Amino acid sequence: MRTRLWLTAFFNNILENGEIPAIFKDTKIIAICKPKKPNNLPQSYRPIALLSVSYKLLERLIYNRISPIIDQVIPKEQAGFRPHRSCTDQVAALTTFIENGFQKNLKTTAVLVDLTAAYDTVWRIGLLTKLLELFPCLTLYKLMNEMLSNRTFVVHLGERHSKPRRLNDGLPQGSVLAPILFNLYISDLPNTISRKFIYADDITLAVQNNKFEVTEKVLSEDLDIISTYLHRWRLKPNINKTVVTSFHLNNRLANYQPKVTFRGSTLNYDQTPTYLGVTLDRQLTYKRHVENTAVKLKTRYNIIQKLA
What are the residue boundaries of the Reverse transcriptase domain, all occurrences included (predicted)? Predict the structure, then answer.
C-alpha cells in the first residue's frame, strides 16, 4: 500500500512538472545473434532493450491519456498497434483487395516499401512539433521532450559491454509509447492514387488496372510523392529491399516483371514477397507459404521429439 501511494505521488510530480529522473533515460541493450547468422557482423545481432519497470509504468499512464486522441488522427490505412486491429486484419485487407481485382479481371501491382531503421531515425523535433499541434499543452511537450532527449544506452554482449552512448534522435526501443508515437509521426502520409496498406513502418502501395503500363505509371508517380514526404521528415527508404510484385490470373504474363522506379532506381521484382509474415504469390495460392510453414513445423517437431 505504501509503495502504491509513493508511486502515485512520484508519478503525479513528474506529470505536473514535466521532468523525469536521469536514470529513466538509461537503456540496457542485450545483443542476441540471429539464427544462422555470422557472429562477426553487427547486422547479425538483434538488440533487446531493457528499460526501468517504473519508467514503463509511467509511460503506460501517459499512453492511457494520449492514445484515444492520437488514434483519432491516425488514418484508417494504418493497422499497426491499434485497438482491435492486427497483422491478420491487414493481410486480409490486402488479399481481399487483390481477390476483388481477380473477379474484375484486373491486374494488381504492389510495392512493399522498406524503411531503414524507421523507429531509430525518427526526427525528434519533427515528432514534437506534430505532438504539440495535436496537444497544445506545454507541460506535455516538456515531458515528452525530456523523455526523448539525452537518452543513453549500453550494449551488452555476453560478459562484455560497450561504453555509454548518447541517442540524439529516434524512439527508444522497448518503449510503451514508441509505437503510438511512430503512428502519429507518419499519420500525415500524403494521399496517393494507389491504395495504401500500412502496418507500423511497413508501407505497401497497391493499384489495379487491366494494363500493367498504367499501374507502373501510377506507382512510380505515387512513390515520388512518398519519397518527398520521407525526405522532409528524415525517414530513409531502403531501395534495395523495397520490391515490386504483381497479382493476376493471366498465365501468358506469368513472367512479366512490372517496371516501377523509386528515387531514380528501378525496383527489384519479387515473385513471392513476404507480407507481415505471409508469403504471397501471383495467384494467391499460398503454396510457397504452406511449404515454408511445413518446413518450420517439421524442424520444431524434431526438436520436441528429441526432448521428449
Answer: 13-267
What are the backbone dihedrals phi and psi of residue 165, each rounded to the nearest 5 degrees, phi first? -120, 155
Determine the Cα–Cα distance for residues 142 and 164; give it in Å rounded to an integer.
24
Tens digit of each residue's pLDDT (9 = 90 or more) over 7-42 = 999 999 999 999 999 999 999 999 999 888 888 888
Predicted pLDDT at 306:
84
The whole-model pTM stands at 0.92
**Other beta carbons within 10 Å of 277:** 9
As a whole number of angstroms, the distance between CA 211 and CA 260 comes to 14
Q: How far apart are CA 288 and CA 293, in angstroms?
A: 9
Kindly list the domain boundaries of the chain, sorted by start residue: 2-307
Q: What is the pLDDT of residue 221?
A: 98
Banded model confidence at residue 76, pLDDT cuts 50, 70, 90: very high
Cell triple for 20? 523525469
Q: How far is CA 110 from CA 166, 183, 195, 213, in A?
A: 38, 22, 9, 13
The answer to whether 189 and 76 have CB atoms below 8 angstroms apart is: no
Locate 165 and state its grid cell.
552512448
